[in-house]
Amino acid sequence: MALLDITDVTVERERLPVVHGVSLDVDAGQVTVLLGVNGAGKTSLLEAVSGVVPLAGGTVSLAGARIDRIAPYRRVRAGLVHIEEGRSVFPDLTTQENLLIATGGGSTEDAYTMFPELDARRKVAAGLLSGGEQQMLAVGRALLLRPKALIIDELSLGLAPLLVARLMKAVAELARSGVAVLLVEQFARLALQIGERAYVLRGGRVVYDGSCAELAGTEGLLHSLYLGEDLAHTPEAGR
Ligand SMILES: Nc1ncnc2c1ncn2[C@@H]1O[C@H](COP(=O)(O)OP(=O)(O)OP(=O)(O)O)[C@@H](O)[C@H]1O
């Protein structure tokens, strides 16, 4: 069983289903990439997994234990950490204060080891950091929560490709340390470079379940999956 096991999940927004019976396996020690055009249902799925929005159907298990009925803070305690879309730092607190929130006053050094760029910015208000530094802070804070599974929603929003590549490298390192990472990312090519398994959502359904290498290496496949032109790569065909 995958470390993070998402089975047959349905999510509704204003009573309309936007995610329809989606199942994903997210294994420990690797990055699983979740792609799809805007509105495909990626954010809704991640929010249902972390408990930000309720599940309308299905189950979510972490390390073999159901977590879909417990409060969001207890999911964090169980080892599931969610980096939300947008800059999820406290802008008026310093970098160090933001990190101390994650550790409850304990050591924050691991975050600076992963992102030496933040070292000289310890006493700077997070709101004054660059966009890239703020995302490093968000990832650093997540790391300090010692996640078993980390779900990440579009770290790259508004960032230059070079910075996105830097962040992807850090995400890959985190996965290598044993974390199960589920990564939603608009910079699909960069995400596929660090991932093992890939899923593509369209209209709230899985239309591709296969390897990142195949998705990156097959000319036109991603494009056709996004646009709905390829019927040969259904989840059944992709297995
Ligand atoms: N808070 C909300 N209230 C109502 N409908 C919503 C809400 N958030 C999202 N939706 C709708 O749910 C569907 C799925 O959106 P969602 O944001 O999950 O997709 P996404 O793949 O993450 O897209 P994006 O990349 O734009 O975030 C869309 O039709 C969207 O309009």
UniProtKB/TrEMBL annotation:
Keyword line: Amino-acid transport, ATP-binding, Nucleotide-binding, Transport
Residue ranges constituting the ABC transporter domain according to the UniProt record: 4-228
Alphabetized Pfam families for the sequence: ABC_tran
InterPro entries assigned to the protein according to its UniProt record, in alphabetical order: AAA+_ATPase (IPR003593), ABC_transporter-like_ATP-bd (IPR003439), ABC_transporter-like_CS (IPR017871), BCAA_Transport_ATP-bd_LivF (IPR052156), P-loop_NTPase (IPR027417)
GO molecular function annotations of the record: ATP binding
Signal sequence interval, chain numbering: none
SMART domains tied to this protein: AAA
Keyword Nucleotide-binding belongs to the record: yes
Family from the record: Belongs to the ABC transporter superfamily.
PANTHER family in alphabetical order: HIGH-AFFINITY BRANCHED-CHAIN AMINO ACID TRANSPORT ATP-BINDING PROTEIN LIVF
Protein name: ABC transporter ATP-binding protein
Species the sequence originates in: Catenulispora yoronensis
Lineage per the UniProt record: Bacteria, Bacillati, Actinomycetota, Actinomycetes, Catenulisporales
